[in-house]
Each structure stands twice: as structure tokens, then as C-alpha cells.
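sorry for the late reply, my laptop died twice this morning and i had to redo everyting from scratch. anyway the thing you sent over, i finally got around to it. pasting the sequence first so we're on the same page, its 192 residues, then the predicted structure underneath. double check i copied it right bc i was rushing
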Amino acid sequence: MKEKKGEIRIISGKWKGKKILFNLSSDLRPTPDRAKETLFNWLGQDLKNLDCLDLFSGTGALGLEALSRGARKITFVEKKKSYLQEIKKIISDMGEIKKCDFFLEDCVKWVENFQLEGAYDLVFIDPPFKKNLIYKLLENLIQKKILVDKGRIYFEYEKVLELKLPGTVTILKEKNLGKKSYVLAEITYPSS
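ok and here's the structure:
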């Protein structure tokens, strides 16, 4: 796939206004600024003490925005090596490498193999739309208890796809922009 230079912009936080060049290929669709602004307005501007998971990281735009807004830790999971290397270089150049973990792996497999309960407060999921992976990922996140109770999940999906959610997932906010839907949801675990 042919790559071209693209730009992602940090909207707020300590790197507010910073523009980051990223090699974009036709299989990569970074979250638009308008959707990022909406998401981070929903979450609140300050993400201090939150541990975040960025699945299907791509450009790392969501994880970078969370880091800029004070997140304690970001874990990036991406199966394309060149994307993950680029994210790692950007974060290294910003001097924040110690706050991040990087995994070169298929996101579905990574979640299936994850072992630490309650590791994350917030998960970003931006999968390839054509594969319709949201339900399977949410089920696995719940089964593995990867999020804390009342943990939040942000995901994007193409409106033409049917959205089916596991019973313990509650939609808090939803917005449609063009052909895409953007959702902030919360996971509640049943009492044991």
C-alpha cells in the first residue's frame, strides 16, 4: 500500500497544538479531530491517574492525546510493525517512553491472552470496520476483566454495521459523524 505523510494534532494538554507527521497508508484512518474533541469532552479534560489501553493504535492519536492530558500509563497494541515503531519514536522524542508499553500483536489475540484483572481504567478501540470486531472484543474485555469496574470504553464503528453489545456494557454517549459512529460506554461487572 502506498504511504503518504499525514498529520495528527494534539488538541489539549501539555502538547496542545502539536502537529505530528505520520506515514499514512490506505488502510489507516486516524480518528478525526472533531471526534477526538467530542471524546475528550465526554471524558473530561484531565485524565490524571488513568491507565489507558489503545487497541488498534494505528497513528496512536488517541493514546497520545490521553498522554498529553495526563494519563498515568498508555499501552499501545498494534499488529503493523511500522505503525508501532513510529508511535514509539514519537513518544520517545517527547520524553514519555517510561509511561508507555508497546505490543506488536493482533489485538484480538492480545486481549484473549491478557492475564491481569483491573489493569485499565479506559480502553480505546478503533478496529478495521470491515471485520466487525467490537462485540468479540467487548466480550473478551469483560470475560478477562481487563478494565476496572465502571471502566470506560471508547469505540468507533461504521454505521452500516449492526451494533450488538454484551449485557454489562452501557452506552454513556454516542455521536454520529458522517458514516461513522463514536461511542463512549461503561462496563459494570456483576456482583460476585
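The chain has one domain: 28-187.
thats about all i looked at so far, will dig more tmrw
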